[in-house]
Amino acid sequence: MIPGPALGGWLAAWAAHLKWGDVLVLAGALAACGFSAVALWQGGRPDKAIIKAGGRVFAEVDLNTARILEVPGPLGATRIEIQPGRARVAADPGPRQYCVRQGWLSSAGAVAICAPNQVSLALSGRRADYDSINY
Q1: What does pTM read for this prediction?
Q2: Is residue 70 within 8 Å of 79, Cβ to Cβ?
Q3: Of 66, 109, 116, 121, which residue is least crowded by CB atoms under 10 Å?
């Protein structure tokens, strides 16, 4: 580990080589990164929920009215709850409950997959958010 005074001396020596143009380029790069994160990684409002069972579309549900769907799978029924503008997997017979733990999905492009029961819930809309699969 670098001691405190040596670290301060190193920073001072490094900062002495910076020019105003360098500072402007770094500030511009940080501003561009912040702007792109805010502007590009916001998912739009979802229009509908697409529920698949066994790789096939089980239902496409509009997100305007509240309802509960029971989706059959190899391990049993998965219960999906729909509320205006959001959806979630409320219960699943799978052993680890990863899809249930994801909670409410509320942006377009969000996905909850119950792999052992072969059931998935995806929200779609005009502007999809980036998720870890797309990234």
Answers
A1: 0.66
A2: yes
A3: 66
